[in-house]
Structure formats: C-alpha cells, structure tokens
C-alpha cells in the first residue's frame, strides 16, 4: 500500500518519468502533459514475478475481504475524482463534461462497488443421498490486462476489478497513447491494495506482446482491434492461456417505421457520438426506413448543432478531438470515400486543418451506398452514415452482413416488436431504444470477430476463475 495522491500535482508527480521518459501530448492542444516511463521487458518480468509471489496470499483471502478492499478502492477513486478527470481529459482529449472524463472516473468507482457486491456461491449440482457434487471457482493465478486508449481508466477497471475480486493478481499494460491515466488510476488503487497485487507496466507494443506470451501469465484480458486480438490468440497458444477478448465492432442500429424521429434523436446521437465516436460499441451504421428517412436526418442534424466540440478542460464542451493522428486519418479517409461515392454530407466533413489538435467535426452522411467503406469499415470517430432501407428484411440482412458482432440496437415505439427484430441480429448485445449503455450487472461480449468471453456480472466473475467440481 502507498500514500494516496489526492491532487493533480500529486498524481502527475507519482507517474511522470521526467524528461527521460516518453513525451505525452494533449491531443486537443499539442501541449506536453508529462512523460511516460519507458519500461522494458525486464521490467515486465519483474512485475510478473512480484505478482506471482503475491498471488497465493491474496487468493487465500475470503471474497468478503477482497470485496471490502474493492469498496475502499472505490472510495479512493472518488476522493481523487477531479484530478483523475483532469489528467484523463488532458491525455485522452475527452471533455470533462457530458458522457466523458468525469463520467468515466465515476464509472470506475461504480464498477468497483458493483463487482464487490456480486455473490458467487458454490453451486450444488447433485445431492441425492448417494452423490454430493458442487461446482466452485478458484483463482486462475496472474492475469495480464491490456487496455485501450479510448476509455483507458474505465476499461482497466472492467478488467482488474473482477480479476482481483476472484483472487487473481494483475499485471496491466495501458495503451502507449494513454499511459499516464492508467498509471495514475493504479497509483490511487494501490494506496489501498496490498503490495504487488496490482502492477502496471508502461511501454510500447512489444510490452503487450511479451505480456500476452509470457509463461507466467495465466489469463489475458484484452480490449482493442480484431487484428491485435488475433495476434494475442496466436501468442497465447504455446501456454494455452485463458482469454477474454473484446475486439472491433461496427454496430448497426435499425429504426423501425413506428419510431418517433424527434423523440429518439438525442439518444441516437449519443449512441453514435459518445466519446466523440471513439467507442467499440458505439452506433456506427444507422438504417432508417424510407418513410422516416428525411425526418430522422433532420432531427439528428438539429441535435448535432447543439453539441459543442473543443478543448476538454473548457466546461461548455461535450465533444473533443480524436485521441491520435492515426485515428484522425482513418476518419478523414472514410468520410472522403463517402464523398467520392456520391453521398450527401448533412453536417461536418470539413475539418479545419489550421487549428491545433486532432479535431474532426461532427459529421452526418446521408444517401450513402450500403457498400461504401464508411459503412462497411469501423470509423471509430465522429462520422455516422445513415442508410436508407425499403424493407425490414433488407435492413436486417445489411446489419448482419459484416464479420463483427459486438453490439446493435433497434428503435421502435413498440418494445415487443423491437425485441422480435433484435433476436434476428447477429450481435452479442442488442439494445432497445438506446445504444451502448453497459451495466456492471449485465454480461457483455461479442460474437463473430468481435471476440469471445463475457465481462461484467457474475458471468464475468466466472470468466476470471477456474471451474472446479468436487464430487463424492
């Protein structure tokens, strides 16, 4: 355990490696925030060895003892909420307000508390007087967690909270784009947790590769691209590691003919543009029937015009920049492909290249070919294609036409009809009249090339344990 760094200066001092580290810049302004440690594979080996040594004692603690520490960790996060949110906004780019930095830090505390409260009792399978069989779960060992740059703090907690609750120790590797946020979060958490139960290693991609193939890592949790997930599967094969993979998505939303365009417009907007579109399970393709098409487009344009974009520390903003230049270039390429294909840009699509930061304007694209790259590829940014359809079967076929299946949504005034349509969509989660609303009590995971394994809730806890049957 260490002292709680409760101010922004304390947080930064706790994680900044000084000028010998790797420079981290604010994606909104280009200003230097701090310097991330340049950890090596030797540092990774040391962290894994320490976590391995700490695991037996941690695993012997009761669920209640570990849950109590998760609750204390939640209190620590809340005590540092504002400096954590400021650092997150500076490094990731997301604004303080809206469903962004303050929201993300609050979600970290909420997830820790929810995970502490889940009950996972032994399940009596047979007890007939002759045979008594129970199913229980025991710790796996050391979990390697690799988190992304879009929700760096929150997704780190999604990984580490259930892993620790189940009696595992954790070595986590943040994205090279957002290391300071995760280092700061772990500094706060480690003011509560015993030494070496949670270790963080900051570095480039070779650290992630070494973590996923390390012989003393027993399970890998990863959120990121399908391409990287495939490499993790390959590198884990030698030691047959257990895996939970939440990979790429290209989530469809289907508006039914009985929906009210004005009533659903703001929820549609945030389903697509939460975190400025940089969310795996954001709404990325919107299918609208001919009868409602013009009205839905107009309603979305109206909402988009009310959502200010700018530097995250300015309180009025609710949309920010893309986190990095590579992602900016992806969005720009796909919007240009839509223009070249004859699509109509309703709003946005004209970035100001003279301003600092990786700002791409909120962009709505109509009358687009269903096979255009902006529809078939994941944009992961603030550009939404709106696709016209004539029959519901046509919309469902289009929704299912891609090789990923993370989330989807159906929008209707008739929830029962919406659920019937949802059952025909090939995605791990289908929301009704909303999109992307995750809940710590409700399992979440993808199908097809969006990965495998479930997170959240009791099912998520089970995924961080080894099932063991005792029969006799």
3D architecture notes:
This protein has 472 residues and is α/β, with parallel strands linked by helices. The protein is 39% helix and 20% strand. The chain contains 16 helices and 20 strands. It has helices at residues 8-15, 41-60, 63-79, 81-92, 101-117, 152-165, 179-189, 205-213, 226-236, 261-273, 293-304, 325-340, 373-376, 392-399, 415-422, 457-462, and strands spanning 22-25, 32-36, 123-127, 132-139, 142-146, 169-173, 198-200, 219-223, 242-246, 251-255, 283-289, 344-347, 363-366, 383-389, 404-405, 407-411, 429-432, 447-448, 451-452, 465-471. The strands form five sheets. A seven-stranded mixed beta sheet has the order 12-13-14-11-10-16-17, sandwiched between helices. It has a six-stranded mixed beta sheet with strand order 7-6-5-8-9-19, with helices on both faces. A three-stranded antiparallel beta sheet has the order 3-4-20, with no helix packed on it. Helix 7 links the parallel strand 6 and strand 7. Helix 4 (81-92) crosses helix 5 (101-117) and helix 10 packs across helix 11. It is globular, with a radius of gyration of 23 Å. The two termini are 42 Å apart.
Task: Draw up the topology in text.
Elements lengths: L7 H8 L6 E4 L6 E5 L4 H20 L2 H17 L1 H12 L8 H17 L5 E5 L4 E8 L2 E5 L5 H14 L3 E5 L5 H11 L8 E3 L4 H9 L5 E5 L2 H11 L5 E5 L4 E5 L5 H13 L9 E7 L3 H12 L20 H16 L3 E4 L15 E4 L6 H4 L6 E7 L2 H8 L4 E2 L1 E5 L3 H8 L6 E4 L14 E2 L2 E2 L4 H6 L2 E7 L1
Parallel strand pairs: 5-6, 5-8, 6-7, 8-9, 10-11, 10-16, 11-14, 13-14, 16-17
Antiparallel strand pairs: 1-2, 3-4, 4-20, 9-19, 12-13, 15-18
Helix pairs in contact: 1-4, 1-7, 3-5, 4-5, 4-7, 5-6, 10-11
């Amino acid at each position: 355990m260490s002292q709680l760094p409760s101010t922004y200066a304390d947080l930064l001092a706790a994680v900044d490696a000084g000028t010998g580290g790797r420079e981290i810049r604010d994606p909104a302004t280009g200003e230097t925030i701090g310097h991330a440690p340049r950890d090596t594979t030797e540092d990774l080996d040391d962290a894994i060895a320490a976590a391995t040594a700490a695991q037996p004692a941690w695993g012997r603690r009761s669920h209640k003892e570990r849950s109590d520490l998760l609750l204390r960790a939640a209190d620590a996060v809340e005590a540092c909420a504002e400096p954590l949110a400021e650092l997150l906004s500076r490094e990731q780019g997301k604004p303080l307000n809206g469903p962004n930095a303050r929201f993300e830090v609050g979600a970290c505390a909420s997830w820790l508390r929810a995970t502490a409260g889940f009950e996972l009792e032994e399940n009596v399978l047979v007890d007939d007087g002759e045979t008594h069989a129970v199913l229980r779960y025991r710790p796996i060992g050391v979990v390697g967690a690799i988190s992304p740059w879009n929700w760096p703090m929150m997704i780190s907690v999604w990984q580490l909270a259930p892993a620790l609750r189940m009696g595992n120790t954790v070595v986590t590797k943040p994205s090279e784009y957002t290391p300071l946020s995760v280092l700061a979060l772990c500094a706060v958490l480690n003011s509560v947790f015993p030494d070496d139960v949670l270790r963080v290693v900051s570095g480039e991609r070779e650290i992630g590769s070494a973590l996923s193939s390390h012989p003393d890592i027993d399970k890998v949790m990863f959120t990121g691209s399908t391409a990287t997930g495939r490499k993790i599967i390959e590198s884990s094969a030698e030691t047959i590691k257990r895996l939970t993979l939440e990979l790429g998505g290209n989530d469809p939303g289907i508006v039914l003919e009985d929906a009210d365009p004005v009533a659903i417009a703001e929820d549609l907007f945030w389903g697509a543009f939460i975190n400025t579109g940089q969310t795996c399970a954001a709404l990325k393709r919107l299918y609208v029937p001919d009868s409602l098409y013009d009205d839905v487009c107009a309603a979305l344009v109206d909402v988009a015009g009310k959502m200010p974009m700018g530097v995250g520390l300015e309180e009025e903003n609710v949309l920010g920049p893309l986190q990095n230049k590579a992602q900016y270039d992806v969005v720009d390429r796909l919007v240009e492909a839509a223009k070249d294909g004859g699509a109509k840009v309703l709003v946005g699509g004209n970035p100001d290249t003279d301003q600092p930061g990786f700002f791409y304007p909120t962009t709505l694209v109509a009358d687009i070919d269903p096979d255009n790259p902006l529809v078939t590829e994941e944009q992961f940014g603030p550009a939404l294609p709106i696709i016209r359809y004539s029959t519901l079967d046509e919309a469902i076929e289009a929704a299912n036409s891609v090789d990923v299946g993370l989330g989807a949504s159906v929008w209707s005034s008739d929830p029962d009809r919406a659920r019937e349509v949802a059952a025909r969509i090939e995605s791990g989660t289908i929301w009704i009249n909303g999109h992307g609303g995750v809940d710590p009590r409700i399992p979440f995971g993808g199908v097809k090339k969006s990965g495998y394994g479930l997170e959240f809730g009791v099912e998520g806890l089970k995924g961080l344990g080894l099932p063991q049957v005792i029969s006799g």
